[in-house]
Design goal:
mainly alpha, about 0% strand, disordered C terminus, about 300 residues, disordered N terminus, 16 helices
Amino acid sequence: MTTASVGAPGAQPRRFGSAGAQPRRFGSAGARRRHVGSAAAHLFMIVALVLWLTPIVFALYIALRPISETNKLGYVSLPRSLTLANFADAWSQSQMWRFFLNSAYVTVPAVLVTLFLAAMFAYVVSRLTFRFNIPLLILFTAGNLLPQQVIITPLYRIYLAIGLYNSYAGLIVINISFQLGFCVFVLSNYMKTIPTEIDEAALLDGATLWTRFWRLTLPLCRPALAALATLLTTWIYNDFFWAITLISTGDKRPITSALANLQGQFVSNQNMIAAAALIAAIPTLVVYVLLQKQFIAGLSLGSSKG
């Protein structure tokens, strides 16, 4: 190494950051953009939360006010008194306990049968190799693209012909039919993340197809099944279209359509209707609280496996 490359004796080496050479600040602009993006994301979530909670809080506020005070001061006014009388009147006057049972008669069998059938179909199209597994999956998924209003007239005539009109079985069948495609799509994608070596090892041990499905694959799909059970319970329980279309007897209608019993012909107590709607929402909240851990696990595990 020559003297020129080393430098003169006693010369101070040039350092980055000295007055002669200022370093370029590459990270300042990126950090600023990340900070702005994070602030925008937080602002968006706050706005979405406010928009989501405003109707619920307003319904609770209306349900806690007496109807006489609301008629005198209006809905948007400061309360002078709060009471739980609207909740008691809604429960007693509409006989909500009967309609809760009607919803249970429809929701519980529909959710269980949908998950069982979807798990079997998803296992066939995702774990077995044959020529028509992809077309079958597309066929089940395409069923969700059909609007409900399109088939209401032929479905009404079919239900009258086979005796399913105005029955719990009719509501159960139609809910299973419309929810099955989505569940098959979700479960098939989830089952594809399970290593195939598990089935191969069980097959070498002499396990039958049913054993591989029931004892091996299905227990591993518990988070996905819990997530789907939460969604299906909410969707089927809150169904209003099929309940008012396929049920003509008021005593057989589920809780969502039975709220119309509180609606008078000329005068309606909106405070009591708001209280009844909040009472009707309690079962779905209970289901979500009970399955919260499994629901979140099902969503996160499905995104982390590849």
